[in-house]
């Protein structure tokens, strides 16, 4: 019966103490929460832990959920902060560069000049919502450094506002905009090699 109810109806029942209603919400949203967590932490066990913690936090704070947004949106924000907490605990490890996300070092560098250009109308953010190319996009995201990947995931995939992204990553809004532009350019170049029309490709400039 629960699978016929809307998220809002399930939330109302869960707030009233029906654990089965919350379990249905978990079933509906756990895969998306896990996928988001994995994109941020890039480690399967950590992503599983983050997903579990996100639902625990959601259950603990369910009474505070004012339903101004959908349950899924609210949950993704909880999962995001849980995942970023894991990232911050890793500071000092060579595989993590979130420390750089709290400084402006490098943000005044020139934007990368594309080495491969082809006619391609879809942006990486459009492709993020196309199930057929999610795997290719995830592979491209893996090639980005953390400070650009995290901004793209939060802003273009999860739909955070610039202000929300800045708050989550402890950045200025200006830095978010610059890093998002860089991430989009880098992803566009990588994905153009897959989706672009080779017949209309242009040779790289020599400068």
Please explain how this structure is put together.
The radius of gyration is 19 Å and the shape is globular. The protein folds into two domains: 88 residues, Rna Polymerase Sigma Factor, Chain: A; 103 residues, Arc Repressor Mutant, subunit A, CATH 1.10.10.10. Helix content is 60%, strand content 0%.
Q: Kindly provide the name of the CATH class of the largest domain.
A: Mainly Alpha
Strand content: under 5%
H and E string: HHHHHHHHH
Mean pLDDT: 80
Helix count from the secondary structure assignment: 9
Q: The CATH topology of the largest domain, please?
A: Arc Repressor Mutant, subunit A
**How many separate structural domains?**
2
Distance between the termini: 64 Å
Structural class computed from helices and strand pairing: mainly alpha
**Largest beta-sheet characterization:** none
Structure summary, number of beta strands: 0
Helix content: 55-70%
Q: What is the CATH architecture descriptor of the largest domain?
A: Orthogonal Bundle
Query: What's the shape?
Result: globular
Query: Rg to the nearest angstrom?
Result: 19 Å
| CATH-level-4 superfamily name of the largest domain | Winged helix-like DNA-binding domain superfamily/Winged helix DNA-binding domain
Unreliable stretches (pLDDT < 50, length at least 5) are 92-106, 108-120
């Amino acid at each position: 019966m629960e699978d016929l109810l809307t998220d809002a109806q399930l939330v109302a029942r869960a707030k009233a103490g029906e654990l089965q209603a919350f379990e249905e919400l978990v079933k509906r949203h756990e895969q998306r929460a896990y996928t988001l967590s994995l994109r941020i932490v890039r480690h399967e066990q950590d992503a599983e832990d983050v997903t579990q913690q996100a639902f625990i936090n959601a259950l603990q704070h369910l009474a505070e959920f004012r339903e101004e947004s959908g349950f899924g949106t609210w949950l993704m924000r909880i999962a995001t902060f849980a995942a970023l907490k894991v990232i911050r605990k890793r500071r000092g490890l060579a595989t993590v560069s979130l420390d750089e996300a709290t400084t402006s070092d490098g943000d005044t560098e020139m934007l990368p000049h594309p080495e491969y250009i082809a006619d391609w109308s879809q942006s990486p953010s459009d492709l993020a919502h196309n199930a057929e190319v999610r795997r290719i996009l995830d592979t491209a995201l893996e090639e980005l450094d953390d400070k650009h990947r995290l901004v793209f995931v939060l802003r273009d995939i999860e739909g955070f506002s610039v202000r929300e992204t800045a708050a989550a990553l402890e950045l200025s809004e200006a830095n978010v905009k610059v890093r998002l532009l860089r991430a989009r350019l880098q992803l566009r170049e990588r994905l153009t090699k897959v989706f672009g029309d080779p017949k209309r490709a242009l040779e790289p400039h020599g400068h």
